[in-house]
Design a protein that fits this description.
Helices cover about 0% and strands about 15% of the residues. It is mainly beta and about 80 residues long. The protein has one domain: Rubrerythrin, domain 2 (Single Sheet), CATH 2.20.28. It has a three-stranded antiparallel sheet, with no helix packed on it. A hairpin with a 5-residue loop joins strand 1 and strand 2. It is globular and about 25 Å long.
């Protein structure tokens, strides 16, 4: 079912995940390790969002803690 912006209220914020007018398709947020340059991309890591990783999770490349990561739009390291 499709809703126009005027038909939506805060309790019914269901919008299909597709590009429609000014809406963009949902894209998972990627995270960049400031130590080793590793990019955590949920699409390639089993679909698990970075925020859902355990507190003890570390970078698989350099062993850095989660706090060494920052959000990025980068898709791969050049």
């Amino acid at each position: 079912m499709w809703f126009t912006i005027t038909e939506l209220n805060k309790d019914q914020a269901m919008i299909p995940m597709a590009t429609v007018g000014s809406f963009k398709a949902f894209e998972p947020q990627r995270w960049l390790c400031s130590c080793g340059g590793f990019i955590y991309d949920p699409a390639t890591m089993g679909g698990l969002a970075f925020e859902e990783l355990g507190k003890k999770w570390k970078c698989p490349c350099c062993g850095a803690k989660k706090k060494a990561f920052s959000k990025t739009d980068q898709k791969s390291v050049s």
